[in-house]
């Protein structure tokens, strides 16, 4: 999967560079000369201690060799990617908390605020950046495992809905969504204070085109690299048609949805942090801080909204499995 690894790395690097440029920052500010290599070395040593080193190194093999691997080898590679991602979370959170403590302990010393805050941001940024690569590769491996274990016969039974049933389902969905949106707005209105003339959730901010591009384009490109692009839209089609699924169809659909949800969430975090770094580079214009901060949150807002929408789709896929 060396090709998938390189494509993911190049895609995320280009996204970070463009995002830094459009937000007023520089990509070099997100490259900590000690933190970045140190985090990767610690991760490599942890993988070595876990006993997954040989399995993890196999992700750099050509796709044909991965495809011809035994099922046990594929499962070990998947386990090694899961271990690497979980370890990356703990390592990044550790450095985030430590640098956060130093940030507040030295709050009166202006000279220390920048480096400590940069370490906080970069730690989470690296988690998002490398985490998306690991999730993309894991989605690819998971797809190979499911295909390896696929059933020889697929369920062809479909449950068609009448126009009346479709209309009733749509009305229920719309009513439910309206209630959810109303509750969100009620909580925001009752639990937050806004003395400005602008609402952060207005269309004025949410229509930010760069933020929309950053959250959707790289995410679906990574999904395509993982080999789950078609499976995702098939899963949505299964839900719309209320079609009964075989075990393998369910597994492929759930893998595509969970992969997209995880990548989109991390992409939202990465682009938001990237934008925050640009904000820190332009603190002298205090009149624009509120607007810049709000726009910086747009990718993460979309990521959360898409995850909220995909959660019911994911649960519906599980219920459509014919064996349950």
Structural topology:
Elements: H1 2-22, H2 35-50, H3 53-57, H4 63-67, H5 71-105, H6 110-148, H7 163-191, H8 203-206, H9 209-225, H10 229-241, H11 247-280, H12 289-296, H13 298-319
How would you explain this protein's 3D organization?
Helix content is 77%, strand content 0%. The protein has helices at 2-22, 35-50, 53-57, 63-67, 71-105, 110-148, 163-191, 203-206, 209-225, 229-241, 247-280, 289-296, 298-319. The chain has 13 helices and no strands. 34% of the residues are buried. Helix 1 (2-22) packs antiparallel against helix 9, helix 1 (2-22) packs parallel to helix 11 and helix 5 packs antiparallel against helix 6 (110-148). Residues 151-158 have low confidence and may be disordered. It is mainly alpha-helical and 324 residues long.
Which bin fits the share of residues in helices? over 70%
Proportion of residues in β-strands: under 5%
**Major sheet, described briefly?**
none
Question: How many angstroms does the end-to-end distance come to?
Answer: 34 Å
* Number of helical stretches of at least 4 residues: 13
Query: What is the alpha-carbon Rg in Å?
Result: 22 Å
- Strand segment tally: 0
Overall 3D form: flat
Uncertain segments = 151-158
Task: Return the string of H and E elements.
Answer: HHHHHHHHHHHHH
Question: Which structural category do the helix and sheet elements fall into?
Answer: mainly alpha
- What is the mean predicted local confidence, pLDDT? 82
